[in-house]
Design brief:
This protein is mainly beta and 276 residues long. It folds into two domains: 75 residues, Hexapeptide repeat proteins (UDP N-Acetylglucosamine Acyltransferase, domain 1); 181 residues, UDP N-Acetylglucosamine Acyltransferase, domain 1 (3 Solenoid). 7% of the residues lie in helices and 32% in strands. The chain is built from two helices and 32 strands. The strands form seven sheets. It has a seven-stranded parallel sheet, with no helix packed on it. A seven-stranded mixed sheet has the order 13-16-19-22-27-30-32, with no helix packed on it. The protein has a five-stranded mixed sheet with strand order 2-5-8-10-11, with no helix packed on it. A hairpin with a 2-residue loop joins strand 10 and strand 11. The longest helix is centred in the middle third of the chain and has 12 residues. This is Transferase. Pfam families: Hexapep_2. InterPro entries: Hexapep (IPR001451), Hexapep_transf_CS (IPR018357), Hexapeptide_acetyltransf (IPR051159), Trimer_LpxA-like_sf (IPR011004). Keywords: Acyltransferase, Lipid A biosynthesis, Lipid biosynthesis, Lipid metabolism, Repeat, Transferase.
Length: 276
């Protein structure tokens, strides 16, 4: 975050960024939610209680309690909420702390996350090729000969292993390949079918929030990817979502609805770079 003021109880998802400058700071009011890889441009103010969708590029001020999507972002709705308290990451953080106390691999202690220990705790991964430079705090299962490259981040467990949901965890079919920098947040469950490929910088998020409550309570939102799919570089997939066998997601797409098998899509929102 650069030259950004952030109000109380605002929360940011993976890869969200604010690009303020000394002359044009970003102002985030209280109780705001920024989705995965959302970007807020210099000089923008986001009103209290606003929700910014995953992958959005916010280039203009956002009113209080507005929901915005797109690149550039546009208002698609205004929240009508039950005033049940402020948003808080505490329920999720409590689960993370409990796992650490139980001695499970945890992002809070990198020394607990060796590949050898990971494989011992997840028997299905015996034949997997996992980079020592990946960060994995996840329940893993699946087929043989999976490849997980450097700088991947995989998190998410079922409630059997201290997670948020019975659907939590990651299932990777035989021959699945995760390229460098793939991020999978699988608290709500992620499965990838055999011989599918996730290209560099892909982000998958299997959870969401109930916008009808001020507290933005966490909800599971499973992501299911079929066999022999190709997910292009930098794509963002946000559940609940099903992608059919053989589908191709073009690079830098945002996918928030189901994709039929053997189709090629550019996603619901096509990403564009900020122009200097």
């Amino acid at each position: 975050m650069q030259h950004t003021s952030i109000g109380k109880s605002s929360m940011f998802a993976t890869g969200a960024q604010c690009l303020g400058t000394a002359q044009s700071p970003v102002r985030i009011a209280e109780n705001v939610w920024l989705g995965a890889k959302a970007t807020v441009a210099a000089g923008v103010s986001i009103g209290a209680g606003a929700v910014v969708a995953a992958g959005a590029l916010v280039t203009a001020d956002v009113p209080p309690d507005a929901i915005v999507v797109g690149r550039p972002a546009r208002v698609i709705a205004h929240r009508t909420v039950v005033e049940d308290g402020r948003p808080s990451p505490e329920p999720v953080l409590a689960k993370v702390r409990d796992r650490a106390r139980q001695g499970l691999p945890s992002m809070l202690d990198r020394s607990t996350q060796s590949v050898s220990r990971l494989k011992a705790l997840n028997p299905d991964t015996a034949t997997w090729d996992i980079s020592d430079e990946a960060l994995i705090d996840a329940e893993l299962r699946g087929g043989a000969s999976v490849e997980i490259a450097r700088d991947c981040i995989l998190i998410g467990r079922s409630n059997r292993q201290g997670g948020m949901s019975q659907l939590g965890g990651i299932e990777l079919g035989t021959g699945v390949r995760l390229a460098a920098g793939v991020v999978i947040e699988a608290a709500g469950g992620v499965s990838v079918g055999a011989f599918s490929e996730l290209s560099e910088g892909v982000t998958i998020v299997a959870s969401t929030h109930d916008h009808s409550f001020r507290s933005l309570p966490w909800e599971e939102a499973p992501v299911r990817i079929g066999s022999r799919c190709v997910i292009g570089e930098g794509a963002i997939l946000v559940g609940p979502l099903n992608i059919g066998d053989g589908a191709v997601i073009k690079p830098y797409s945002v996918v928030i609805r189901d994709v039929l098998e053997n189709t090629v899509v550019h996603g619901v929102v096509q990403l564009m770079e900020i122009q200097e």
